[in-house]
Design goal:
Blueprint: H1 20-37, E1 47-49, E2 78-84, E3 87-93, E4 107-109, E5 114-122, E6 125-126, E7 132-135, E8 139-142, E9 164-170, H2 175-194, E10 204-208, E11 213-216, H3 229-238, E12 247-249, E13 258-261
Antiparallel strand pairs: 1-9, 2-3, 4-8, 5-6, 5-9, 7-8, 10-11, 12-13
Helix pairs in contact: 1-2
């Protein structure tokens, strides 16, 4: 795991007696377990994306013979038919061959659920959080007088001009219940590593206490349950149907699907 996620071990007797190595392993194993059992909705590390609005030509947009238009936002642009909100429309693209935008982008739609937006960088500067808001855990809306840029230089680092980068945590925020569930799991993994009386299923195939390693049977959690009521209740609240991965909706108007959660 590329980040350290907080957990609540206040209900774990003896957590402070574990070595830092055991605590680190047990914590990572706990969040990995919750991430798997909730189909990836919790336990994720922050990632950075560089938005680029598609639909200005190239596959899968249908192309016509290039016809210059004086109304195009950038000289030399072409009129291209594209599917917009389920309808065919002629759009003027001003981004050249990169096809990164056709209209002013004042709202960015993430590919899946968003637990938190950590930082937005534009033209090498960090935007004040008051300049945007997150709607419905999915849409990043610009709230100041500006809009998201039409295009960006994908070859340039985020410290340069003409760039846009959004750092965010995918999924949902674990909250108090999630941190407590992770803490309870970490406690049991710690016991398993140190030879204690562990409440997890007994199908552990090997344990290396000195090297702090543990191998578990792939079928360790049948029906997506760990046998700890607080943890199972939390998992069911996020993944009531026991999905193994987030569901995806496919549309004929777009090449790619959209992750919807579980």
């Amino acid at each position: 795991m590329d980040c350290e996620l907080p957990l609540d071990t206040s209900c774990c007797d003896g957590w402070g007696d574990y070595s830092p190595e055991v605590q680190a392993y047990a914590s990572e194993a706990a969040w990995a377990t919750l991430r798997s059992l909730t189909a990836g909705r919790v336990g994720n590390c922050p990632i950075t994306v560089r938005p680029c609005k598609k639909g200005c030509g190239g596959f899968p947009t249908w192309m016509t013979y290039p016809v210059p238009t004086s109304s195009a936002p950038t000289p030399g642009s072409w009129i291209n038919p594209a599917v917009v909100d389920g309808r065919w429309m002629n759009v003027a693209c001003g981004c050249g061959r990169d096809g990164c935008s056709c209209t002013t982008l004042c709202e960015f739609v993430f590919p899946g659920e968003v637990a938190a937006v950590d930082e937005v960088q534009q033209d090498g500067l960090v935007l004040d959080p008051s300049a945007y808001r997150l709607d419905n855990h999915r849409r990043l809306v610009r709230t100041d007088a500006a809009c998201w840029p039409l295009c960006q230089d994908m070859k340039a680092p985020l410290t340069a001009d003409n760039t846009l980068g959004i750092s965010y945590t995918p999924g949902v925020s674990p909250g108090v219940l999630g941190r407590r569930a992770a803490g309870l799991l970490a406690c049991e993994y710690g016991k398993a590593c140190t030879g204690g009386d562990c409440a997890l299923p007994a199908n552990v195939t090997s344990v290396n206490r000195l090297g702090v390693s543990i191998t578990l049977d792939p079928a360790m959690f049948p029906a997506g349950q760990v046998g700890i009521p607080e943890v199972d209740s939390y998992v069911r609240s996020l993944n009531p149907h026991g999905f193994m991965s987030p569901t995806v909706v496919w549309s004929p108007s777009t090449l790619y699907g959209r992750t919807t959660g579980v």
